[in-house]
């Protein structure tokens, strides 16, 4: 029943084969979607090579550079999407960053620059993508982003990223309210801890994973595929009545008090 054939799906934030974005892109492709991706530009072209080789089995029709802190690159990326696709049906936002030194120790020690950078890349970037995607979602569409429990509860060492995820989740609600009249749905997936390049920067990430495995009702954490399946569902007509929501995919950990 889950069929995305004929849908154009653009997935941001694939860094390597451990990325949750990679798991989502695979499941969207499996459901029949036409895939486009971005990579972070760098002088030596390392990210372009790595991402291009990784996504080759998905036969992506668009691979473009983009740094969400650069408005010119954002405009160029969506100009390419419009030129090649004409429209976009699905947009997946898997972008988050904070300086490593702001992900350990005291939250009060967060630098002004580090706070601004984390909020800009991890939260404001959703607005940057949504405002450019809106005119290309001519037949409606689905926008999905990634959050984490640290946006609503205190997680050791998550610090400024928790504030960024809180802002991201509220952005989901405001965007859902604004874009609903255009039949554009906006939702977030709050995934359990998974070992990724991004999560490795959080101090004590392995302890967090072990704690979830011991405490969550399913006695395990989740996989990229499970998050990808939920994203595919949210991007499909099966979820046509769901918007402005944060869906927990965390083996039930969020419900536990102790």
Q: Main sheet: which strands, in order across?
A: 3-2-1-4-5-6-7
Helical content, roughly? 25-40%
Return residue spans where pLDDT drops below 50 for at least 5 consecutive residues: none
**In oligomeric terms, what are we looking at?**
single chain
| Main sheet: strands, sense, barrel | 7 strands, parallel
CATH architecture: 3-Layer(aba) Sandwich
Tell me the CATH topology: Rossmann fold
What string gives the helices and strands in order? Answer: EHEHEHEHEHEHHE
Number of helices: 7
Relative strand content: 5-15%
CA-CA gap between termini: 38 Å
- How many whole angstroms does the radius of gyration measure? 17 Å
Active site: 148, 158
Family: Belongs to the short-chain dehydrogenases/reductases (SDR) family. FabI subfamily.
InterPro entries: Enoyl-ACP_Rdtase_NADH, NAD(P)-bd_dom_sf, SDR_fam
Protein name: Enoyl-[acyl-carrier-protein] reductase [NADH]
What does this structure look like?
By secondary structure, the chain is an alpha/beta fold. It has one domain: Rossmann fold (3-Layer(aba) Sandwich), CATH 3.40.50. Helices cover 39% and strands 14% of the residues. The protein contains 7 helices and 7 strands, in the order E-H-E-H-E-H-E-H-E-H-E-H-H-E. It has a 7-stranded parallel beta sheet, with helices on both faces. Strand 1 (8-11), helix 1 (20-30) and strand 2 form a beta-alpha-beta unit. Helix 1 packs across helix 7, helix 3 (71-85) runs parallel beside helix 4 and helix 4 (112-133) runs parallel beside helix 5. The longest helix has 22 residues, at 112-133. The protein is globular and about 50 Å long. The mean pLDDT is 94.
